[in-house]
DNA sequence: TTTATTGTTCTACGATTATCGAACTAATCT
DNA sequence: AGATTAGTTCGATAATCGTAGAACAATAAA
């Protein structure tokens, strides 16, 4: 069974988190996972890039400590480490996701 | 008199802001400017890198819309565009700066 | 006018990053 | 057992990034 390494809370850094969220592909991905409010398989989320590129981005998000990956058969189930991030960097993830959501709405106007 | 181009509020992007803040040198710099609570000259803030590197970083912060630069004689006076950023991305800058400050305190423990 | 100060730009380098197609791996389905 | 599915890794490319020393530019001080 494939096992993924996730950083402990101590290993998560603010600049690492900001860096991971500063890429539009990754920010959009995290938004979609957040909106789903439950574990999503990798492929459940539409992506504008190749599968290999998406694997790369998901690895960046995992290594930054933003997502948790749970293997489930041939799928990888993704969830946000919201609680740990909120405890470590209060308000950062939530405010970023809210702003990203507002942008989405504004751009659809 | 040297004039600096600053992006308008419309031109400021969330990923641009996150990218600019994801570098430790720039995050530290923005923290120092925030703590000062008034315009600082470039050189008033200690930096761990060469002057030319710092000029580069300051340009990135300006182009991301995080800081405003006002030439003042041979100096450049730096201020945070806090209000505009708060209006556009509520809570993002403040929560990031608070977390950065907490890290600073924790690391001194 | 010359010198000093502050900060910028130029140029270059090494490292990192995002991208993708091809090939691969592990689990599940038939 | 073979085929399918989901996702990963490999290897390559091009672009971006952070770094710095040297040279420069604008302003102020002497």
TrEMBL record, chains A, B:
Q: Which residues form the HTH arsR-type domain?
A: 6-100
Molecular function GO terms recorded: DNA-binding transcription factor activity
Give the matching SUPFAM superfamilies.
Winged helix' DNA-binding domain
Superkingdom? Bacteria
User: What Pfam family is a match, any one?
Assistant: HTH_20
What is this protein's name? Helix-turn-helix transcriptional regulator
Species: Spirosoma profusum
């Amino acid at each position: 069974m494939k096992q993924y390494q996730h950083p402990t809370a101590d290993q998560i850094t603010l600049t690492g988190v900001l860096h991971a969220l500063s890429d539009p592909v990754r920010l959009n991905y995290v938004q979609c996972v957040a909106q789903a409010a439950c574990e999503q398989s990798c492929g459940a989320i539409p992506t504008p890039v190749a599968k290999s590129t998406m694997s790369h981005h998901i690895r960046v998000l995992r290594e930054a400590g933003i997502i948790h990956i749970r293997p489930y058969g041939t799928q990888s189930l993704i969830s946000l480490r919201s609680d740990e991030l909120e405890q470590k960097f209060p308000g950062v993830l939530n405010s970023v996701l809210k702003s990203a959501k507002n942008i989405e709405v504004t751009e659809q106007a």
